[in-house]
Amino acid sequence: MPPKTPNALLHGALDALILKTLTKGPNHGYAIAKFIEETTEEAVLVEEGSLYPALYRLERRGWVEAEWGTSELGRRAKLYRLTETGRHQLAAETATWRRFSTGISKVLFSR
Amino acid sequence: MKRSLRSWLWRVPIDQEIDEELELHIEMRTRELVDRGMDRKTARELALSRLGDVATLKRTMTDLGRKRDREMRLTLWLEELADDLKFAFRQLKASPSFTLVATLTLALGIGANSAIFALVDATVLRPLPYGNPDRLVALWENSTTIDRSYVSPPNMLDWLARGQSLEKIAGFTPAVGGMVMAGADGNAETVSRQWVSAEIFDVLGVKPIAGRTFTREEDVKRSNVIVMSEGFWRTRFNADPSVIGRELRLDGSLWTVVGILPRDFQLLGETSIWAMRPITNLNPRARGAYVLQVVGRLKPGVSINAAEADLAAVADALSREYPQTNKGRGVAIQPLHDSLIGRDLRFTSMLFLGVVGFVLLICCANVANLLLARATVRKRELAVRSALGAGRRRIVRQLLTESLVLSLVGGAMGVAIGAAIFRVAPSLIPQGLLPATVTLSFDIRVIAFCAVTAFLVGLMFGVVPAWKATDFSSAEVLGSDSRTMTRTGGRLRGLLVVGEVATAVLLLFGAGLLLRTLLAVDSFDRGYRAESVLSMLVDPLGSKYPTPASLQQFFDQVEAEVAAVPGVASVGWAESLPLDFFDAGGLSFEIVGDPPVDQSQRPSTEYQIVSPTYFSTLDLPILSGRVFDRTDTRDSVPVCIVNEAFARGLRGRDPIGLKVALRPAGSPQAKPDVREIVGVARQVKGRPDEIKDFVQVYVPMAQDLSDDMFLVIRPTSGRAEALAPSIRAAISRVDTEQLVSVRNVMTLEDIAWTATSRHRFRAVMVVAFAVLALVLALVGVVGILTYSVQQHVRDFGVRRALGATTNDVLRLVVRDAARVVAAGAAMGLALSAATGRLLETLLFGVSPLDLQTFALVTMVLAITAAVAIVGPAWHAARIDPATALRNT
């Protein structure tokens, strides 16, 4: 068993992270996971068992679209691409997150 | 582009999609770990374990993936539909005249169909508005000479009691005339009435809206009880609930109102009140009184055939027990629905439906033609779309969407047209054609029918043009000029128009036959020569004139009083009128002195009571012998006058002086009524479409009397109707209490008109539809000719340039037209010859292969073809060689 994710993601945050990742361009699932780990300096570990279902849900909501492309290994890979509605969603979630974290910060760092 | 990628993605099965995706993930993670120095096996195990339980993961993903695909397919489909609709509306808006012609054509076709469907629905499809209508049956007695006679009450009760198949049974007598209701103001009014047995409403499963229906005790106690219809209760008693329980004076006695029946309940013929007629403990002689129309409710699960066998056994037993009345009498049984609607109405409904169905086919052909013509024009556009990657299926779907939009818009307009037809239709439908149980309604069923029809029609006229339009067999289309590729389209269009013409010819032919039938029944020799005779039924009340002598005296007084009215030339009495014969079953007869004939072989005759002046009033000639006179009395020798058909049956013997023995049909043992023949009267028609002359015996009123008689009056000049008020006044001078019910005031012309109304209705309807069909076919022919001229503009131009005259060019157009019309006509006439026989039962005085009708149809068609040619020919003749060659 892998160690329990040190910082379990808040509900809905994974979606936002995926969307954010995809703003850099279409990518496959592994790259998304890797990118999140690296950017957060592994402070946030993506629980891989929930990454793919999350991707499927996003696809179903129409926030991302899937298409076949080629991976770095030269193999066929399913690439996810951010859609226009996905972009709007990301903006909305970012705003929410900013309000939320500012609120929490104000409390935690108050004197 | 996006869409096609996505659809390509879907072609990968979901399992494979997930496997590949996860495998890639694991492989990349493994490589990452190996790069960090792990050995490959451990790395892969770690990569796997980081995904958690892979089986569960796959299941979750499969589930989500499936849902995603389903929704996407639907979204895609809806998106495409929205696109197609947008496209369709844009296309239709771009060519408004095409859209208008096409939708109007369809609206006409669907509208006509919807109205006729409403008729068919009411008569054939919809079950009767009674509880468990499939178990309701109509019952009659029959014998060797009569297929169906009314039923005697004791027999009816025995069928129920001794048989195993019936749950309930009841009878009614519809045509018994009204009851006279004395009003508070001293004025009397006649109220329509039917006799019913106590349980009739239980049999039919009809619940009163107020009060109750009759009980068995009332039957046994012979109470005077009535129920009334809601309509009568509302109009005459202002829906006063206290009417229930009240006693009304009807026909001079008191009757108690016990209940009110819902408005839409009627049996045969409309009536205001139902009066209970007791049927238990009747005089044994009642077994020979055939007075009831009978309805029964079968026990659950009993079939008509089983009931028939069961009741036959009962009838058999009865005929052995009561040979006097029941010998040779059986039971006839039929589902109530069939018996109420009748073959004639059912056939008429279906005939109309067939006819409007053909009209709709022609509409479809016309619209298909328009679409084909458009397809030719649009071929280039479609080819471009196809070249840009749209699949044929996709383009066909797009074109079909366009057709369906057309047909649905047409259908919606059709509903409006149908509703409009429906508004005026009741005034066109002859009275009595539809039984009172049948109510026409333009409801959701009709609208559903229109929707389904519109959809099917849209597919029908859309598929072929769409398929043809997308048949880009070569790249030729993009580069070629428009003439080379239209050849097959042109041929198909030609065939469609030929089909239209053939259909129109078929309908015209049917219309012609029905029209000739109508002319035949309208113009036949009715037998009597009087042009204008007024008739009215005089129905004195039995209680007022209890004896035949007093009744005779009353009739004599009325005759004398009416004869004195200024303007009256002649007055007479008759039990029934020409063309208005009530099928009473007739009498069987033998000539006295002839060798005895077995009862089942005896000829039968109608029996009509008339006054001596009847013949002169109708100007009905006595061909030999004498007319009745004052010497024929109750005490003198019984005499009769026979008609020509009767005389012919004597095979050359002089009828005068022969004695005829008359017996009620079905009572061969009864004591005969022997009468001496004193004269022969000219044949009159009993029904307008009778095939065989009916046999008739006239009997003087002085020697037999019916308690209601028709008074017939011939005016000295002018219109007979004008005399009606002064004759009413004359009658009331005789019976000062005005307790005389006078009704059915009509001229003999009215009666003849009514008698032929069914024929008229059928002929008018079918002629109207046939004309519609012809006009539509004309539009089709004009369309194809115009098209053909357009296609040959350059051709004509060249010909003109090379010296062809206008006539030569016109000849080409005429040749085209002649080809299409002649082919259509040949097909149509062949079809008519083959199917005319189907109409045979509706025809009278004309054969289904009537040559005159053939000739007439051909002539009408020739005229139509000539009309069709005018426009296109004008167009072709005006082609200027120079412009034609420059522009194409």
Structure explained in plain terms:
The complex is a heterodimer of chains A (111) and B (888). Chain A has helices at 13-22, 29-39, 48-61, 84-108; strands spanning 64-70, 76-82. Chain A has 111 residues and is an alpha+beta fold. In chain A, helix 1 crosses helix 4 (84-108). The longest helix of chain A is centred in the last third of the chain and has 25 residues, at 84-108. Chain A starts with 12 loop residues before the first helix and ends with a helix. Chain B has 888 residues and is an alpha+beta fold. Chain B contains 26 helices and 23 strands. In chain B, the strands form 4 sheets. In chain B, strands 1, 2, 5, 6, 7, 8, 9, 10, 11 and 12 form a 10-stranded mixed beta sheet that branches. Chain B has a 6-stranded mixed β-barrel with strand order 15-16-21-18-20-19. Chain B has a 4-stranded antiparallel beta sheet with strand order 14-22-13-23. In chain B, a hairpin with an 8-residue loop joins strand 19 and strand 20 (673-681). In chain B, helix 2 (14-35) crosses helix 3 (40-50). The longest helix of chain B has 52 residues, at 336-387. At the A-B interface, helix 2, helix 3, strand 1 and strand 2 of A face helix 1, helix 2, helix 3 and helix 4 of B.
